[in-house]
Write a structure and sequence with these properties.
alpha/beta; Rossmann fold; 6-stranded parallel beta sheet; 9 helices; 6 strands; globular
């Protein structure tokens, strides 16, 4: 569990999470297409390790120049292959980056507008941050489907893919933390319909202030 700086803008904050390759990015894009401000902690993470940033210098010191590409930028695939096979190294990296990512995320949230905001946070459950947001939306899919998608998307071998999945919260842990759930095991049209329902719900909550409404599970 890590501490996150609080939001001070008073708006409704939805934490969007789910296992790797579950479909979080697609769901986030669908919210964005409906005019919802989306702040993605993965994008924030890329920003804090840009060349010239202190975090990149420290990563290079810790893991060596082999985690940089030919242009001096972070080679995320190389770093991921390194740390997901070495738990102490992964925890060292997390201790360095996550406070920086969370602080930058809060700054972006407070600079955004909208009735409510979606904060994409893949490790929301792992780091005990469910209470950081007003509602937790989990994108869920069967474990074997998640494994197949990950291997197809990243070209990972099965051993590495399973190591990545094992480092995350279990499906059961994510669902236990969820207020709302989208099951992503069907066509895109199902996701679009689910996001439309949740967009309406979140706009209603943002307007009337009733943040304790019962959770929704879709489709």
């Amino acid at each position: 569990m890590i501490e996150a700086p609080p939001f001070r803008d008073g708006r409704l904050h939805i934490g969007l999470t789910g296992g790797i390759a579950s479909g979080k990015s697609t769901v986030a894009r669908l919210f964005a297409e409906r005019g919802v401000p989306v702040i993605d902690t993965d994008q924030v993470a890329r920003q804090v390790v840009e060349p010239g940033q202190p975090a990149l210098e420290e990563i290079t010191r810790l893991f060596g120049p082999e985690v940089l590409d030919a242009d001096g930028r972070l080679d995320r695939a190389a770093l991921r292959a390194r740390v997901f096979r070495d738990e102490p190294a992964r925890r060292q990296l997390e201790a360095l980056l996550h406070p920086l990512i969370l602080a930058a995320t809060v700054q972006q949230v407070e600079a955004a507008d909208g009735l409510y905001q979606v904060i994409v946070a893949p490790l929301l459950v792992e780091f005990g941050l469910a209470g950081w947001v007003d509602r937790v939306l989990v994108v869920d899919c069967p474990a074997e489907m998640q494994l197949e998608r990950l291997m197809a998307r990243d070209g990972s071998d099965e051993e590495l893919a399973r190591s990545i999945l094992a480092a995350q919260a279990s499906r059961e842990q994510r669902l236990a933390a969820a207020d709302d759930v989208i099951t992503n095991d069907g066509p895109r049209e199902s996701l679009e319909a689910a996001v439309a329902v949740l967009d309406g719900l979140y706009r209603d909550i943002a307007r009337d202030g009733d943040r304790d409404r019962p959770g929704v599970r879709l489709p």
